[in-house]
Structure prediction request, 743 residues.
Amino acid sequence: MSMRVTTLMSSRATLRDLNDGLSRLTRLQDQLSSGKQISRPSDDPYGTSRALSLRGELGGLDQFQRNVDDGIGWLNTSDTALGQMSDVLARVRELLVNGGNDTTGPSSRAALADEIDQLAESVKQEADVQYGGRSVFSGTATDTPPYALGGADTYGGDAGTITRAIGPGVEIPINTDIRTLLGDGQGARDDKLLNTLRDISDHLRGGTTADANALRGTDLQRLDANLDVLNGIRADVGARTNRLDIASSRLSGLALNSTKLLSDVEDADMAQTITQYTTQQAAYSAALKAGANIVQTSLLDFLH
Amino acid sequence: MTSSFFGLQTSLRGLLTQQQAIDVTGHNIANANTSGYSRQEAVLEPTRPYIIPANSVNNGSGAQLGSGVDIAAIRRVRDQFLDLQYRAQQMSLGDASARTASLDKVEGAFAEPTDDGLAAQLSRFWDAWSDVANAPENAGARSALVTNAQTLTASFRTISDQLTTVAQQAQDEYDAITGASGDIANMASELSGLNRAIGDAVFRGMQPNDLMDRRDQLIDRLSQLAQVSVTDTGNSRFRIDFGGVTLVDPSTPAGFTWPQTLSRTPGGKLGALADLASATGPALTYRTQLDAVAADLVASVNALHTSTPFFDPAGRTAATIAVVATTGTVQTGSGRASGENDVAQAIARLRGGTTDQMYQALVARIGTEAQAAVRAESTSQSLVDSIEDRRQSVAGVSLDEEMTNLIRFQRGYQASARTMTTMDEMLETLITRTGRVGL
Prediction:
């Protein structure tokens, strides 16, 4: 015998089907309006944990990108200052060659010595270049200028290293130890640039044959050695800038990739969702229509 | 021989019985939409026959002459076995619904995956440390870090509070239902009254169908709350065991005992609520796990932030985690130089570490359990629906059927009336036309 169907049963079934249809429709509508297929963890627990870790990864990549940008700014500032020093050194070399000539008289040499002193100060000034209010050449003592202008030639910073994190576990130093170029002045006798410049100035003013020989011989050699060191430092800064540039493009590639993965996990597939929505809507309308027709008729309608 | 008026009596019985059957049909139609109503059926039965003594028929034996119809009983059409199945599923549904509702609130408290969730805030906290590492001299970056950390700890506390509230709400609901004037008390008192009325009626040989429907409906409702078992103690008076204790007992003077302490696992909605409120229930387990995330964050940051603690070392739970560092005491490097950033750098390296992973695992666990609860609820719901359909198929009122019955009994009534008319005409022939030969 087939199942006995009663009045309450058909109305209950209709109501249940309508409810189911409407709740499916609401869920799809939710996905369409938010654009997300995961709005709470229970929608897709695995997807949620993937989404959380991808979001974390993406946040990290954004931050690394900011670190890289900051590092590039720092290195560019250093490079500009080192470039200026290079120009100064070229001028010093010119003056030195000029001063070494026997035809240059004592008064002219004194004038040259004055200019050398000025140039030494301008080297110190270039060394005190700042990036975002921080002295880039002072090691980690970024609030102190590396050399006091108009004062002693001793280094005021420290030997600390400043790094930028450019990837998980990857940190690269962005500061330059300017002391290897400029040294601690005449007192230290370290043959570094400031020591050399002060010596040149003294030799120009000295006027003895030994001074003139030094100008033509050792001073020129020391200046050239200093110039080599400067070029080495500039090459190093350039190499690090290069590395940061590469890191930057790699990070944006990774970020693009993670964004795409996150979107795959989290975002609703619009074409698919809209199709499903249309299908569900049709099914729901059909259920409404059927409900309206079926529930109302009974034998009562045909008896007189 | 039978009396001349015998046939009149038979027809009268027919008329009265059909009329009563129509009354029963009318009652069914009137209750077609009453929930918990079981359709009733008039059981028709031939009345005791008239015995015609021996030698009165042709072959010399006696005979029995039918004397009409009467109603033997008005019975309730219901399948007790389906009731048992229904109640068992109602119990599972009550459990699953309470869990789903609670876990829904838990998911709401965590608000993942969004840009405001704890995962996103942890990410911003690490960002803030990176920013400090990029500009250790900058008081602005340090102050942003401290604000960020305070927002993070506030979120920890909010989620912890909300989890506590979810557990507390479950306890409150449990107390409200089981209280001295709660749902159970009302239902138990009504059930014991029904037991008495039903017992009396059955004792007097009647079947109190509508009272029985009401009692079954109340038992259905009880079964959603906890495990119910029913025993007939005679005269259809039920002893009802509920959640491990005897709730309704006709042999006691009051007929029921409430309040009582239910078993630790009463099943149904109360079982779920008791579990949700307990320290080992989902909400408080999640809170313990969130505490572990907070403790890990405090320990790992403080271990690197060695000068002064960054987080209050005593606050190792989600409810007590607090920032003690100020813009002035944030440590960026291990030395004294203003540009040192090794400490900030090391803390920023914690990104994606154990704290983040523990938190993600917690969210994934909540998601999995909430999803399981939703699925369990929808399975129970469809089982309840299908059993209810079968119950309705047996006990529900079908208007088509009732209409057919109405026609059937109406025709029966008309035919009985016709028989009576025939009898009447026969008697008229006998009384007014007989013995008038030649008049």
Q: What stands out?
A: Chain A is about 70% helix and 5% strand. Residues 185 and 195 of chain A are 4 Å apart (CA to CA).
